[in-house]
Fold this protein.
Amino acid sequence: MQRIRLRYTKRGRLRFTSHRDFQRAFERALRRAEVPMAYSAGFTPHPKVSYANAAPTGTGSEAEYLEIQLTARRDPAPLRELLNASLPDGLDVTDAVEAHTSGLADRLQASVWEIRLDGVGTETAERAVAAFLAAEEVQVERRTKNGMRAFDTRAAVARLETVRSESDRPDGNACAILRLVVRHLTPAVRPDDVLSGLRATADLAPPVPAAVTRLAQGLLDEESGTVTDPLAPDRDAATAAPSTAAGLSAAKVPSGASPAVSGEGTA
Amino acid sequence: MSAESVFPQLEALLPHVQKPIQYVGGELNSTVKPWESCDVRWSLMYPDAYEVGLPNQGVMILYEVLNEREGVLAERTYSVWPDLEALMREHHVPQFTVDGHRPVRAFDVFGLSFSTELGYTNMLTALDLAGIPLLAADRTLDDPIVLAGGHAAFNPEPIADFLDCAVVGDGEQAVLEITDIVRAWKAEGRPGGRDELLFRLAKTGGVYVPKFYDVEYLADGRIARVVPNRSGVPWRVSKHTVMDLDEWPYPKQPLVPLAETVHERMSVEIFRGCTRGCRFCQAGMITRPVRERSITGIGEMVEKGLKATGFEEVGLLSLSSADHTEIGDVAKGLADRYEEDKIGLSLPSTRVDAFNIDLANELTRNGRRSGLTFAPEGGSERIRKVINKMVSEEDLIRTVSTAYGNGWRQVKLYFMCGLPTETDEDVLQIGDMAVNVIAEGRKVSGQNDIRCTVSIGGFVPKPHTPFQWAPQLSAEETDARLTKLRDKIRGDKKYGRSIGFRYHDGKPGIVEGLLSRGDRRVGAVIRAVYEGGGRFDGWREHFSYDRWMKAAEETLPAQGVDVAWYTTRERTYEEVLPWDHLDSGLDKDWLWEDWQDALDETEVEDCRWTPCFDCGVCPQLDLDIQIGPTGKKLLPLTVVK
């Protein structure tokens, strides 16, 4: 039984794909690509796919992760190509490594988000960010299945800053960009909760919906507030000690196929 | 009008609506051709929500047929839900295609496929959102030709004022012929404006242009006659029939949506048409003659379609799938091929006979045997003779017995209420049938957890059927009859708890009846309902009977007619019916004889196995039924490892 871990994206208009929609599309792609999937037992067998921590519908992502179980060995790199050919553009598999370690889900400790605020000037955004960070606690409310629920957003935020770039767009319209590092806690704090927090602390009210993209997920370095590639341990294990069962295919994983991703913020 | 994508404007609205994924396109196997590379451009609409419209085979086939053609493009559009409609109006975003997100008004042809009349108000919403005048008479050269097709187009009169033209029958070849005419007219610099283009279409004899026909009425409200008002326009418009399905193996690349839709499977139409002759069934009448896809053609479509989509279920579609001359070999061959791949096979629309249990067993070799569905349609032997559904209660019990013996646990039975000549007694016998089914099931299986669900729909008489003259049962009478049946079932101490009873109410059927057999005067009702907020009439939560009745009371009495006149009134032989000038191939006199046979409780055989009974289709269209057997088999696929 081989396990392969994939990193994939939700880009452009396909960011409106819900997690359930993605699951169906991915399982069909597995069949189209003729991946020798392991199936669960029972009346309605399902291919064994473990999804971790999906981004909310409507937010883009460069860093979603899942793991599949195969009944026959496959080389991760060509498998990735096959899957990409079988998925719609925008749902792209950007990395594939054989699992050599346990606990991928445990390594997804935090996310790096980019938040584009069309119509908001960088200075306005900076003031709001400062007010948010200065607060001990920022209570917001969100509607959940069990009604409105109030919770703190401040504690989950490991880092929040405006990105200095040519962020004000060429057409002269202001567009502030925030970079946010959020710890995965319970209850989960999502980027829109932080936006609610910015509204609560500093009256930040973007005129159009923010465009939100997850840039990375992984282990959080508390010192620097950066996030490291959660597939790196598998890649390291593969290069250090090629798997005995099918050494060749495992060794073919191109090292550096995916640069270690981190949330260096303004770097 | 600019064909530029409106996606940037739409995108800003999407975070505020339910299920935004349905509006973004990007489905697997969808096509966006460069606008400038094409000189004839179609937008195709299924006028219902995306989740219903996307799997529609008709639209999918035409989309692919058109896009395969050099210099032609087709994009799809669906009805937007009221939440997005409100935002689109507020922010001036027009009705758009999900492929290129182009405004519908920028295309040459706006084609709508109507499986049901309940999509009419959605058409008006789409036209209005698109910025296209609702009335065909108000359109200019800047507007597309608005074209209707689908089964409801066999009586397009209620929407005649909103349509530029309609096509009846199979669309595959028709859309290409229309494309050629549009292309030539555009290349010549659009001489004579819209009228010239419509005239060229009408002259073919296969495109109905309502404006070229005048309807004259008698003092009592009936139609006196329908006359062409231009020379060169034919008296009757004939339907299109594709003869060799193997030459049209579409869809080859079925669309695979990201959003969840009502049918998530690879569908293959295994034959078109049906000659069983059920008198209530419009589909069976208007799609004659029977034309089978060959067993090898089916095998090839399934194989390529599964590769192209990754679907895990194959649906073998037709009006009565077990009637394919080689269905046994088809089912076994496919089950053999895909047994290892966890591909499910389904065979909707099967009849009540024991052979179908063998088929069902074949299709569920390693799956669950949960429920089987049959449609006896009528509760009593007598009423089944009236509707020509030739199945006896013994047949049903024998079938059900075999099913329970093979491990099936639940049987669902479909019936109709309000059939011509029906009495309370005919309907109450539905309860007896359900009881007998459960008794047999308990006996054969030796278990008590046997269920039978009775699902009942109100009968709506349809154009081009022997029942086109029949009075429809009023909503009140339908409801009263079914209340008696429900009470009878609930009162049965021994079996009542094992019988499920599904029925809503008779009101939507009356609106469907008004639209099905309506004439041009009904157009005003549709418009008033739309203007009063009517949308998504096929959806229980959006449908408003009161809105329809109010609109009818405001518009119809001035013309000397009312809803009852269109629905519960019986027509006579002499009456000119609103759809008489649309030729489905059926001989009107044969339909009348069949109506008389119905009243006499006389049955008619299936012409596939018995001599021709002169329904008129084959000689009228100069063709013949196309059936097997071919004697061929599906060979195992060579597996490349």
